[in-house]
Automatic annotation (TrEMBL):
<dbReference type="GO" id="GO:0008476">
    <property type="term" value="F:protein-tyrosine sulfotransferase activity"/>
</dbReference>
<dbReference type="Pfam" id="PF13432">
    <property type="entry name" value="TPR_16"/>
</dbReference>
<protein>
    <submittedName>
        <fullName>Sulfotransferase</fullName>
    </submittedName>
</protein>
<dbReference type="InterPro" id="IPR011990">
    <property type="entry name" value="TPR-like_helical_dom_sf"/>
</dbReference>
<keyword id="KW-0808">Transferase</keyword>
<dbReference type="InterPro" id="IPR026634">
    <property type="entry name" value="TPST-like"/>
</dbReference>
<dbReference type="InterPro" id="IPR027417">
    <property type="entry name" value="P-loop_NTPase"/>
</dbReference>
<dbReference type="Pfam" id="PF13469">
    <property type="entry name" value="Sulfotransfer_3"/>
</dbReference>
Amino acid sequence: MTLEAQAREALRQGALQAAAAAAGALAKGSPDDPAGFFLLGIVAAEAGQIARAVPLLEAAVARGPHAEHLAQLARLLILLRRDGEAAEAATQAMALSSKGAPTDARTFDTIGCVLARLGDHGGSLAPFTAAVAAEPWNLDYRYNLASACGFTGMVEDARGHYEAILAADPGNARTHYALSILSRQTAQSNHVPRLEAALAAAPEPHDALRIRYALAKEHEDVGNAAEAFRHLSAANDAHKRAIGYNFAQDAEIFDAIEAVFGGAGLPAGTGHSGPAPIFIVGMPRTGTTLVDRILSSHREVEAAGELQAMPLAVKQLAGTPSRRVIDAQTAKASAGLDAQAVGSAYLARAANHVAGVKPRFTDKLPANFLYVGHIARALPDARIVCLRRNPMDTIWSNYKNLFASGSAYYAYSYDLMDIAQYYARFDRLMAMWEGLLPGRVLQLSYEALVSDQEGETRRLLAHCGLDWDNACLSFHKNSAAVATPSAAQVRRPINADAVDRWRAHEAALQPIQAWLQAQGMAV
């Protein structure tokens, strides 16, 4: 067995010391062969030493490009938030594959995953398809392809792949959930019996979480409000206990932001000029995706997705040691940041997600409402739109949607009172921004938008400095990918189906309604 084969076999078995020994011997004995450096890099990555692994993979690529090496380098660069370099490496890997270079299924899948992380879901279709063609029995590869199909509007293709997965693995929880949100279910066509069977057999809490969310979605679709609430309550109660969330964690962040900006106001500073970015902010599930589709249907605007560019720019320049992108320490440390530096850092990161074929782009990260102060200073010509939706519909919609379950951004969303408290602080923060920056943020009502589509769209475009474009009224024909829970809704013409949806659960939500009213909020 060759040294390369020995190293690969040791990696497969998880024997990192043996893999490192074989790879090291190969690199020393054949210094011009990229394989030794590549395998040493993979060993380091498997040991969690990503920063050490990247130079080793770069050394391998420098000795002769291989699709596998470039794909793994791209994967690690994504983990280090070096998105531009990751995109370049993934593109090179795919180009080699297209020219007939030997490429295995795992490499194709890795390329697809990198492109998906970069928001290029259309671009991810080709490598994911190639991965499934090479290993049709690999359910992880097929799931990734199904997701890409769903994001790009190929709903029936996605459904076929999801059903193929469930035929092979009936308990696959993430597939059950993905299939439930792919389209609206009906009394005549739904998966409730199959989901009940899967829940009864669910081996792990995280599987039960996803299956219960799927059951809640389908029960709500078919009008079984009590069953929907029962499953959500069980799922969310268990998950909140598992993650140990306390609202005080988020309250500290709001307190810090208000302390930085609410006392002396916005610090002076000249930012990076130019109107290119349009920030769409607000609580999740309030119409941000809808507005993004409207704006990106305009001839001058492209959708860049939910960028982490502003949070990462602030985190990087604040220099705080915590692993979280946003926390109270980082908010406090950001007080004296140079506006020009923040603007430049943001635009450099955003450029990795923008095709650049249109003069303007949208950044649809809802949590950017926490960064309005930084956006206003760093990008004085950028436009900001904040979606507002009835508080009760907002709270219910946050409670019933399964966000990224490991993300600190959404840790508040597993308890109705936590969501209500979070909403109240969001509302208070937006009032502070309005006081500091009167007129700078367009407060756009979701309910007003669905009742007067053209009038509110004209107001939206005027705020963003855009001329009228009739295509904005036909946003549902926009072919761009959608990677949010709103994907099915925004492919239909505008409608009021989601208005007052909370009233189906009015009795259960009454304590939340009373609490909001006690805070002086109209519900």
